[in-house]
Amino acid sequence: xxxxxxxYINNFTDMSSVQLSxxxxxxxxxxxLQAPRSSSWTRIVDSNRPGxxxxxxxxxxxxxxxxxxxxxxxxxxxxxxxxEPRTIPRALGNYYSPVVDGVTYYFRVRSRNKRxxxxxxxxxxxxxxxxx
Length: 132
Prior knowledge:
Distance between the termini: 77 Å
Structural class: alpha+beta
Strand content: 25-35%
Shape: elongated
Oligomer: single chain
């Protein structure tokens, strides 16, 4: 019976019976990787440095880099008028400057890898408070 099971695994699945019996978790074949998922949250917080805001978002394991967009104005339908996208390498320590006191800033992000680009994240907003 064990021989039949091993034969089935070796002949009709993408894994070998040796791999399954090793105790290691099977991993997805690199060719089957898809575009990364999008960050489920974004946040803008005041920076401790004057004239800056800190952009925070969920780090995505499958992402090689991120694309962010910022807006400080809305169109006639109340939708942000996004500036040109910027590519950043990591999810931590992303500051945006200069910011103007009293202006509301909008921010969203999407993940990138070799297989594609995720959907845009939810939009975060914050009215800037600049400490002089």
